[in-house]
Specification:
This protein has helices at about 15-30, 40-50, 55-70, 90-100, 120-140, 155-165, 205-210, 235-240, 250-255, 290, 305-315, 340-345, 350-365, 370-375, 390-395, 415-430, and strands spanning about 105, 145-150, 175-180, 190, 200, 220, 275, 280, 330-335, 335-340, 380-385, 410-415. By secondary structure, the protein is of the alpha/beta class. Strands 1-12-11-7-2-3-6 form a seven-stranded parallel β-sheet. Strands 8-9-10 form a three-stranded antiparallel β-sheet. The radius of gyration is 25 Å and the shape is globular.
Length: about 425
C-alpha cells in the first residue's frame, strides 16, 4: 500500500502565480491578436519554452479563460465601429448593365468626399466594403482555387473579414492556393484604436489572413520589394523563387499565349483563377499607399520620380484652392499606375506629357503584374470605393477608352455614392457620343 505522502505518478508541476499570469497573457495575445489556433499555440509554447512541454489543449483553454476572468484581457466596445451595411439591388443591376459586369455589390453606405475628411471615416468605409466583399468571396471560392491578391486597405479588410467569419468554422474548401500579385511597401492601414495600433496592408499580409480561412490553404509569399532601382533588374527578381509567380513570361507560357514553351508541365507556378484587387487614387492629400509609405525604405527605389509625381499631382489638383482641373489624375491597379480618363481629356498637353513620363518611369521598375496579365485571370474582383477614387474606378471600367484589349474587371464591390456617380458618368458619356 503506497504511503499517503507520496506524490501521484505523472502529476504536472503547478505554475507559479506570476508565471501563470504571464502565460495566460501570452496565450490571450496569441488567441486575440495573432489569431492562432490551439495547435499553433501549443507548438509555439513548446518551441520557445521547453519547460512547458507538459502543457496540453485543455490547459491552454483554462489559461485563456483565466485571462478573461481576472482582467488580463479587457474588452473595449466601440458603438461607432463599422457594421456590415445592406446591399442596394437596384444600383447593382444598373452597374452590371452599364459597364457589362458579371456581378456588382453596392454597399448602402456613403462615399461622399465630405464624409471622408478624416482618415478614420475613410478607413471605416474600406472596412464596410471589405465585409461585403468577404461575403461574396465566400460564395465563389472553389476547390483548388488559385487566388491572387493586390495590396490595399479594402483588400486587407476583405481578407481579414473572411478569416473572422471562419475563425472557428473553417470553410470546407480544400486545395486553395493564395499568392500576392505585387511587392511589399510596408505602408499601414490607418489606426483604429490608438496611434500605435497600425497594421501592414501589403498583399503578403492580406494573403496570410485569407489563407487561414480555409483548412489546408497554401500561402505563397512573394517577399519582394515594391520596386527595384532599374528596369534591367526586373528579370533577375522574377526569374527565380516566388518571384516567378508574377513573371509575365511564365504566365504567357502557362496560358499558351507564348510561342515559346520553355516551362515543364509540372512547373509549380500557376496563373491565378481568381484575383482580388483594389483600385487606388494617387492624390496628394489621401491615404493612398504610395503617399502613406512615401518615406518608407521600400519606396526609395522609386525616387526621385515618385516625389516629382506627387508634387505634380498636387499642382494639378489645385491643392484644395478651388482651381482643381482634375480630381484624380493618376490611379493604380495592383500598384501599377495609369493616367485616368479625366486627366487625358482635361489636362494641357505639356502637363500630360510630363505626367506620362513620370508614370512610365515608375511602372518600369515595379515588381507587380501588368494590366495584360490580368487579361489571363478568368475572374477579377475589384473592391474599391470613396469619392477620391471615382475617376480611377471609372477609368478601369471604361477599358476600351483606356486602350486595353479586353475588360480587366469582372465584378465590382463599391459604395452607394460611388455607384451613383459612376452611373451618372456613363450616362453623360453616352449623351456626348
Amino acid at each position: 500500500m503506497p504511503a499517503t505522502g507520496d506524490k501521484r505518478r505523472g502529476r504536472r508541476p503547478a505554475l507559479d502565480p506570476n508565471d501563470r499570469r504571464r502565460l495566460a497573457a501570452r496565450i490571450a495575445k496569441m488567441v486575440l491578436v495573432d489569431r492562432l489556433e490551439q495547435k499553433e499555440i501549443l507548438q509555439q509554447l513548446t518551441k520557445s519554452e521547453p519547460g512547458l512541454a507538459h502543457i496540453d489543449a485543455s490547459t491552454v483553454s483554462r489559461l485563456y479563460r483565466f485571462a478573461l476572468d481576472t482582467g488580463i484581457v479587457r474588452v473595449h466596445i466601440d458603438e461607432n465601429a463599422p457594421f456590415k451595411p445592406p446591399r442596394i439591388d437596384s444600383l447593382e443591376r444598373e452597374l452590371v448593365a452599364a459597364y457589362e459586369l458579371q456581378s456588382a455589390i453596392v454597399a448602402d453606405t456613403t462615399g461622399h468626399e465630405e464624409a471622408l475628411e478624416s482618415s478614420l471615416a475613410d478607413d471605416r468605409l474600406h472596412q464596410a466594403l471589405g465585409q461585403l466583399c468577404a461575403d461574396y468571396l465566400d460564395t465563389i471560392v472553389r476547390q483548388n482555387e488559385i487566388v491572387a491578391l493586390s495590396s490595399g486597405r479594402a483588400v486587407f479588410y476583405a481578407c481579414e473579414s473572411l478569416f473572422n467569419k471562419h475563425i472557428f468554422d473553417k470553410r470546407n474548401v480544400r486545395g486553395v492556393k493564395v499568392v500576392s500579385m505585387n511587392g511589399n511597401i510596408a505602408a499601414e492601414v490607418w489606426s483604429m484604436e490608438s496611434p500605435d495600433a497600425r497594421r501592414a496592408m501589403d498583399a503578403d499580409i492580406s494573403g496570410a489572413w485569407l489563407a487561414k480561412a480555409f483548412p489546408d490553404a497554401e500561402l505563397i509569399r512573394l517577399s519582394l520589394p515594391v520596386a527595384v532601382k532599374s528596369h534591367d533588374m526586373i528579370n533577375d527578381w522574377l526569374s527565380n523563387g516566388p518571384g516567378r509567380w508574377i513573371n509575365p513570361d511564365v504566365w504567357a507560357e502557362k496560358t499558351g499565349t507564348s510561342p515559346v514553351a520553355a516551362i515543364s508541365a509540372d512547373d509549380e507556378v500557376y496563373v491565378p483563377t481568381l484575383a482580388l484587387v483594389g483600385i487606388g487614387g494617387v492624390r496628394a492629400q489621401s491615404g493612398h499607399r504610395f503617399i502613406v509609405g512615401l518615406h518608407e525604405p521600400m519606396l526609395g527605389n522609386l525616387q526621385p520620380e515618385l516625389g516629382q509625381l506627387i508634387e505634380l499631382i498636387e499642382k494639378i489638383s489645385g491643392n484644395g484652392s478651388g482651381s482643381r482641373v482634375v480630381s484624380c489624375a493618376v490611379g493604380d491597379l495592383c500598384n501599377r499606375l495609369f493616367i485616368t480618363l479625366a486627366a487625358r481629356k482635361n489636362l494641357p498637353a505639356p502637363i500630360l506629357s510630363e505626367l506620362d513620363a513620370l508614370v512610365k518611369a515608375i511602372n518600369e521598375r515595379l515588381l507587380s503584374i501588368t494590366f495584360e496579365q490580368l487579361y489571363m485571370v478568368p475572374k477579377v474582383v475589384v473592391v474599391a470605393g470613396g469619392a477620391t477614387k471615382i475617376e480611377a474606378i471609372q477609368s478601369v471600367l471604361e477599358w476600351q477608352a483606356m486602350g486595353w484589349k479586353q475588360p480587366i474587371v469582372h465584378d465590382l464591390c463599391t459604395d452607394r455614392e460611388t455607384a451613383v456617380r459612376l452611373l451618372e458618368a456613363k450616362r453623360n458619356s453616352s449623351r456626348r457620343s
